Amino acid sequence: MNFCSHCGQTVRFAIPEGDDRGRFLCDACGTIHYQNPRIVAGTLPVAGERILLCRRAIAPRKGYWTLPAGFMENGETTSEAAMRETREEACADVDLENLYTLINLPHIDQVYMIFRGALRGDYASGPESLEVALFEEAEIPWHELAFPTIERTLRHYFDDRRGGDYPLHVSDITAEDRERYLGSA
Amino acid sequence: MNFCSHCGQTVRFAIPEGDDRGRFLCDACGTIHYQNPRIVAGTLPVAGERILLCRRAIAPRKGYWTLPAGFMENGETTSEAAMRETREEACADVDLENLYTLINLPHIDQVYMIFRGALRGDYASGPESLEVALFEEAEIPWHELAFPTIERTLRHYFDDRRGGDYPLHVSDITAEDRERYLGSA
């Protein structure tokens, strides 16, 4: 951020009075520009014994497999965001069951929220996917998954499926976790 | 948003190519300025039979009672945000138990996430609170609560306490719900 989005003057980065962290400040109009984490909402679409995955057609991690997920937009709920992303990336509808993983990535200012649900009807590649396919547990391309959040969600799911109970899993991924993961792929 | 925060030129609001919703666009440098919902993280601090509430010293809803909660910051996890807000508003520490309510407010682009936890030690008014106090169920100031998210979280808690089970509650608050609530106070 270089300029004030309100008045167009140059901003500076400093701690505002009464605050305890740096913000972009505009001395011309007095606006404090707050920046906050973003939610990535998605689904874990289940079709019997199989899980739907999408192979990414876009950066980052083009060519790697992911669950359908993306940035939540203004004006929608977390469930709506998850369903919209599933329609966009996999041309698929999902009957949502529960919020299944909530994963904090504080080093990149993201919070993943993946909802478990039943795939309803057909699917196809959306513009952001090279292909979309269903995988049994033994077929999951573990070494070609796009992000550590996706691997973690799938591992929880297959573990939980043995017991038939799918509680919410809340966890964090650190910068080191992510580097180790992306470095190994 | 009037000006590009990257290059300082005037922005326009239009649907980018390949997108399906309006964004602020900079024709000078090509930046698309995305805007996304914010997370409000907080706690439901439990001390035996009583709940800690804070009376707000700042707008909006100055003078009304709330659970300690506020905007999640970059670089932190949802739990860290909830605990930081509790320290700031109530000078209190909480041993978090579980994510208890997740409430979408799509008309104001917010997602509330309230964690249930045990109050540990003392408490006092922080700079954003006029007073901080513990309330039994019969003492809750239902008509002087700051926000519908707070009322809903407290109602879930007292209902669940009768059964001793505290599952995550996911729900939405619409513009109409909120207007009805704030209009009635």
UniProtKB/TrEMBL annotation, chains A, B:
InterPro entries: NUDIX_hydrolase-like_dom_sf (IPR015797), NUDIX_hydrolase_dom (IPR000086), Nudix_N (IPR029401)
EC number: 3.6.-.-
Magnesium as UniProt keyword: no
Keyword Hydrolase set for record: yes
Source domain of life: Bacteria
Top-level EC class as recorded in UniProt: hydrolase
Nudix hydrolase domain residues: 36-158
CDD domains: NUDIX_Hydrolase
PROSITE patterns recorded: NUDIX
The entry's keywords: Hydrolase
UniProt-recorded Gene Ontology molecular function terms: hydrolase activity
Protein name, as recorded: ADP-ribose pyrophosphatase YjhB, NUDIX family
Source organism: Chromohalobacter canadensis
